[in-house]
Amino acid sequence: MKIVRNALALTAVFAAIAGAASAGSVVLKSNPVDDDGRVTLGDLFEGAGAASEVVVAQRVGPSVVLEAGALQAQARQAGLDWDNPTGLRRVAVRRAAAVPVQTAAASAGQTARPAFVSAGAQVIARNDMVRVTYQVGGVNLSVMGKALRNAALGEPVAVMNTSSNRIIDAVASGPGQALAGPAADMVRANPQQFAAR
Q1: Where are the domains of the chain?
Q2: Helices H, strands E: what count in the chain?
Q3: Does domain 111-197 have CATH number 2.30.30.760?
Q4: Is residue 82 very low, low, confident or very high in pLDDT (cuts 50, 70, 90)?
Q5: What average pLDDT does the structure give for the chain?
Q6: Terminus of the chain with fewer CB atoms < 10 Å: N or C?
Q7: What is the mean pLDDT of residues 90-112?
Q8: Distance between CA atoms of 47 and 99, rounded to whole angstroms?
Q9: Ranges for the Flagella basal body P-ring formation protein FlgA SAF domain (predicted)?
Q10: DSSP assignment, residue 88?
Q11: Considering only 1-5, 141-145, 148-152, 180-184, which range has the smallest mean pLDDT?
Q12: Could you write out the three-class secondary structure of the chain?
């Protein structure tokens, strides 16, 4: 009986080791881009290996924003392990020819902002899908819309709410991100300080 128990324990250990070996640990690229409209795991992660050609999204315009949780699940299905160590909520992928920026994902519980975008760098292109956030008194309300013009960090951008077709006056705060309300005035007044955060 003891031999059987030891054999079962040993089998469980080998199964755990094999499972860990099959899930390749990967790191999110700092500036994910694609050049053909097909966003693959290889476009997003360093060390994607055999899963590099797995398509996770289609980019129709200059950029596409992916939800980090869904991306993590897609990577796991392809045998990759991305532990999302910084708690990102979103990841933006731009056309390879677009202005390069640091990752466009936002940490959980924080305002979405790029890490190393300089003031004057275009962060929103016309027809991009943009998340507009209204911030006041610790309350954040967000809505998705379509940018009606190009905008650099700190520049005004008109965004059409895709649900109501109303135009929202906002200020570009990062790739695929804009702010409305009092926070927008802060970004407009000092985009360089905002970019450094």
Answers
A1: 24-109, 111-197
A2: 5, 16
A3: yes
A4: very high
A5: 75
A6: N
A7: 54
A8: 24
A9: 107-177
A10: B
A11: 1-5
A12: CHHHHHHHHHHHHHHHHHHHHHCEECEECCCCEECCCEEEHHHHEECCHHHHHCEEEECCCCEEEEEHHHHHHHHHHCCEECCCCCCECEEEEEECCCCCCCCCCCECCCCCCCCCCCCCCEEECCCCEEEEEEEECCEEEEEEEEECCCEECCCEEEEEECCCCCEEEEEEEECCEEEECHHHHHHHHCHHHHHHC
Whole-model pTM: value is 0.43
For position 112, what pLDDT does the model report?
41
* φ/ψ of residue 45, rounded to 5: -120, 140
What DSSP character marks residue 50? G
State which amino acid sits at residue 11. Answer: T
pLDDT confidence tier of residue 63, bands split at 50, 70 and 90: confident
What Rg value do the Cα atoms of the chain yield, rounded? 20
3-state secondary structure of 86: coil
CA distances to 22, 24, 32, 84, 143 from 77, rounded to whole Å, are 11, 11, 20, 15, 29
Question: Where are the alpha helices (H) located in 24-158, listed in sequence order?
Answer: 41-44, 68-77
Place of tokens 């160590």: 85
Contact 147, 167 (CB under 8 A): no
